[in-house]
Amino acid sequence: MKLGFDMIANYHSHTVRCGHASGTERQYVEAAIEAGYKILGFSDHTPYPFEERHVSRIRMRMQELADYCSTVRALKEEYASDITIHLGLEAEYYPKYFDRLKAAAEDEGVEFFLLGQHFTGNEYDGVYAGMPGASEEVLRQYVSQSIEAMETGAYLYFAHPDLICYDDGTDLYKEQMRLLCKAAKRLELPLEINLLGIWSKRHYPDPVFWEIAAEEGNEAILGMDCHDPEKMYVPEAIEEAENMARRLGLRLLTDLELKLK
Predict the structure, then answer these.
(1) Residue 4 belongs to some domain of the structure
(2) Torsion of CA 248, 218, 87, 232, to 10 degrees
(3) Shortest CA distance to 252 belongs to which of 229, 230, 215, 222?
(4) Are 101 and 125 in contact (CB under 8 A)?
(5) What residue ranges of the chain have pLDDT lower than 70?
(6) Rounded CA gap, 147 and 143, in Å?
(7) In the Cβ-directed half-sphere of 153, how many Cα atoms lie within 13 Å?
(8) pTM of the complete model beyond 0.85
(9) Residue 116 forms beta bridges with which residues?
(10) What letter does residue 46 receive in the DSSP assignment?
């Protein structure tokens, strides 16, 4: 296999612990090496220390965090001569619990967070933002909560920032997405063109969003968001994302190593 563009890094990779992915960590590493990546970031869906006995069905449990981290660290050492591996988590910003999550992640040596704001509120008291027909209230909350998340300075980049499923092309959608893009630009936080969204034909990447991102001068990065080692490399999706970035004049980053040092 040979990667298109200069996509030497993929920081968006999951594991079976999230409950909706397949394959072992080793299989993800070997798939990344075969594809030609130089850098692989594991960023499985973070656990959260919910107090209300809320059991999330899309993330690992807190008691699984230590094993996740030790497994990735062992592979990082084993494959050091073949590929650079980073240990991360894809983490929503849930204000009530975020400080406790950060402390737990730091104790385990987590190197980075990706912002993947799937829910508003604190998950159990909010709504899934990617459901069709999101209301004006949900749109506004998604944007304000995402901006608050970016302002923490805790995140490496914003994964699928256009996950919110509001009526595309409306003035309100454009207004709110411009607020989000301006904040990302101000905070120098890259935005992810999500390749899972492309190959699985989801409602994102949203063309209206990315036109606004290009106008605001946001930096972009490609993320495979792979939940299966076989999807570590999807050349058609990579090519489509590259073509969109080229057409819009988006600056595509090849890696974020300086931000991880």
Answers:
(1) no
(2) -10
(3) 222
(4) no
(5) 1-6, 168
(6) 6
(7) 0
(8) yes
(9) none
(10) P
Question: 79-114 burial string, b = 16+ CB within 10 Å, else e?
Answer: beeebbbbbbbbbbbbeebbeebeebbeebebbbbb
Q: Give the C-alpha separation, 91 to 43, whole Å.
A: 9
Read off the amino acid at residue 85: I
Contacts of 171 (CB under 8 A, 6+ apart): none
Beta-sheet strands, E only, within 57-115: 84-91, 112-115
Whether 1 is covered by a domain: the verdict is no
In a domain, 212, yes or no: yes
Count of structural domains within the chain:
1
Question: CATH number, domain at 164?
Answer: 3.20.20.140
Instruction: Tell me, yes or no, whether 2 lies in a domain.
Output: no
What is residue 119's three-state secondary structure?
Answer: strand
pLDDT in tens, 193-239: 999 999 999 999 999 999 999 999 999 999 999 999 999 999 999 99
Mean pLDDT of the chain: 95
How far apart are the C-alpha atoms of 261 and 245, rounded to whole Å?
A: 27
Whole-number Å distance between alpha carbons of 122 and 106: 21
Residue 89 structure tokens: 């988590």
Give me the residue label for tokens 């299966």.
228
Instruction: Tell me which H or E stretch contains 242.
Output: helix 235-248
From 108, 22, 13, 103, select the one nearest 70 (Cα to Cα): 108
Burial of 51 (0-12, 13-18, 19+ CB in 10 A): exposed
Nearest to 194 by CA among 245, 142, 127: 245
Range of the domain at 147: 9-260
Q: Taking the mean position of all CA atoms in its chain, how far away is CA 156?
A: 9
Question: DSSP letters along 123-149, please?
Answer: STTS-BTTSTT--HHHHHHHHHHHHHH
Q: What are phi and psi of 115, to 5 degrees?
A: -85, 115
